[in-house]
Structure formats: structure tokens, C-alpha cells
Amino acid sequence: MSHTYTSxxxxxxxxxxxxxxxxxxxxxxxxxxxxxxxxxxxxTIETLLIRGFGTLALLMLHVVLIIGPLCRLSPRFxxxxxxxxxxxxxxxxxxxxxxxxxxxxFHALGNLNPLLSVFVSNTRYASLSNFPFxxxxxxxxxxxxxxxxxxxxxxxxxxxxxxxxxxxxLVYVAYALVVAHVLxxxxxxxxxxxxxxxxxxxxxxVLGLHLVAGYRERRLDEEVKPKAAxxxxxxxxxxxxxxxxxxxxxxxxxRVAVFKYDGKVSAISNVCQHQNGPLGEGRIIDGxxxxxxxxxxxxxxxxxxxxxxxxxxPTFNVxxxxxxxxxxxxxxxxxxxxxxxxINASELEQKELSL
Amino acid sequence: MIRPLRVRHRWMITLLAVALIALFxxxxxxxxxxxxxPRIPETLIREGEKR
Lengths: 355, 51
Fold this sequence. Notes:
The complex is a heterodimer.
Chain A: H1 12-39, H2 45-73, H3 78-82, H4 84-107, H5 114-120, H6 134-149, H7 153-159, H8 161-168, H9 171-184, H10 186-189, H11 193-220, E1 233-237, E2 245-251, E3 254-261, E4 264-269, E5 283-285, E6 288-290, E7 297-298, E8 315-316, E9 318-321, E10 324-327, E11 341-342, H12 345-354
Chain B: H1 3-30, H2 42-50
């Protein structure tokens, strides 16, 4: 956890981000309703707003979903990850406005409970072209609500990162429901090929980027095995690690980050305690390993956050021999101090000569 | 331990890709052209005139 952390992160950067986002939302809706009333002069303002909010939520959901794989593919996109929660919660609010307006417009004026009406007004489940698409949207909205309501470090700390991540993986179920809602709803009535092409493009981006990033991650997850049960594992050459950065290897079922700094080498778990971010893709700042996702910090020798913070990750015994970094695959307790391996002077001289 | 979660994530994305592409194609094929009435039926015209 960084020294500048506060429970609600309304810093200047986030305020500017939110202001730009709200301005963009207002402009999008104004443009959508304005152009919509010209192209469809018979459409009511309610219909245009329902479609405007729905289109905006769909667009924002695509942006939220491509940020993750983009960051896995290139660190240049990491600043987008920093504010993804604000974008996600705002996307839910847009989807809620769409859902609430639609339920009021189409289901609230009869003698049935509007929510019940969503489920019983159309029961042609056997027909694809007349499928009751509205319940699909309602289920997606419920999932998005659960995610928006738990998008805070309070829930992350109380549920623990693995449980919280499992819960938030439901976003893919929500995405599938939303795509089905659009395909079986508005795209059955609106046959303009541009609309179908835009949805197809969005799907290709989301699914394609996830598949490419997943393939790369799979290669990283290939385990390096020791030759004997108590053997250290040859992870990489010392000169393969840039100064104050790490090389990552998978040992004993999990990724380990091996950092080089000030003529020393230390190994800690690659998994940040905050949101399980990849510590090995961060760098050492002010003597601390700094997570690239949200800036949580750990001392490389002990895997413990500097006081007053209390996060701890497991450490690994490490040594350097013949210019190679060797790591014991058995993890130490989180926060346990391990003497860093020294890169001996002759190896450093050799490296400098070769430069 | 988040490696099992990553593996599950990859499986989920692969399944999602297959299912959504299949649904996309099926939904577009199932589309029916909006019914076009060349002229308003006489009965409706008469009803309108009565009102």
C-alpha cells in the first residue's frame, strides 16, 4: 500500500478523469437524442433516451472489458487500469437508467407488477427471432449491480482478493447476457447492417484481445521444475534482469518475481495482496517493489509492506552462481526476511566489460 | 494461489468466444424482415373514420 493511499481515492487525477467522463456521457446522450430525433422524427424522447443509455452502457462495457487484456499486452495502457472502477460503476449507472426507463415505459402501466411483467409478457422461449430478451438484460443488470456495489477496497479486503476476483469474473456472464439481449432484442427489429457490424467489431475486440493475452499468460505459466526435490531452480541469467526490475518464473504452482537492485537479488511472490496484480511487472521505487496496478509496495528482502502498512507476500531463498540466478521453489512465510544474494564483484566487472 | 483462477479465466473466455460467435450468427440468420403493408386494410380505415 502506498503512503498516499486513502480509503476513497478522490485525488486530483480521479476528479479530472470523472469530469472528462461525465462530459463525454452528456455529449454522447445529447448527440444520440439530437441525431435520433432527426433520423427517426416519430420516435419519442423516452424511446431515444432508453436507446441512448443502452448504447452508452454497451459501449462503456466494451471499454471496461478491453482495458484488462490491453494492460497484459502492453504496460503503456496501465494508466487506464487505475481508474477502471470509476468507469465500471458509471457504466452500471447508465445500464440502470436504461433498464429503469425501459421497465417504466413498457411494463409499469399495466395491472401487473412491472418486474413480474418483464418475465411473463413474452414467453416465446422457443423462438429465436421473438425470444424474450428483456429478462436477459435484467439478469445482466443484477450482476452489474453486485459488481458495482462491491467495487471498493472495503469489500476487497473483507472478501479477500481471490473471492473478490471470482465474484468480478461474473462480468463475462453479464457480457454474454448483454450481447444476447442486444442480438435477440433491438437487432431483430433494426436490420441496418451497420449496427450488427458494430456489435460484431466490439465482440471481436473483447474476445480477440482476451484470447491473445490469455495465450501469452499461458506460456508464462509453464512451470520450471527443479532437477531434484530439494534443488534450487535455475530461473534466469543475472544480466537478463534490468536494474530495479524483475524476471518472472513459475515455481511450485505460482509465479515468482526475482528482482535485481544495488548489486543484490531477491525473490518474492509475484502476487500482490491488494488485487493480485503482477509485482514482477513493477519496479523498485524508493527501495520498495511497487505493484504496477495500484502502487502497493513491498520490501524486496522481506516481502512486507513498509510500516505502517501490513501487507505481506511470501519470500523465496535465492543465490547467484556463475552469473545465473537460482531460486528455492519452496516459499517462506509471508513477510519472512531473506538475505539477498550478492552479485559478486567479478561478475559485475565482467558485465561492465561486456557493455 | 491465483494460477487456478487464471486457468479458469482462460477456459471461460474460450467458451464465451465459441458461444457468442454461434449466437451472433444464429441471431442474424433468424432475423425476419419487418412486415410491410402495402396499404392500410379497409376495416381499419373505416374504424378510424368512425372515431
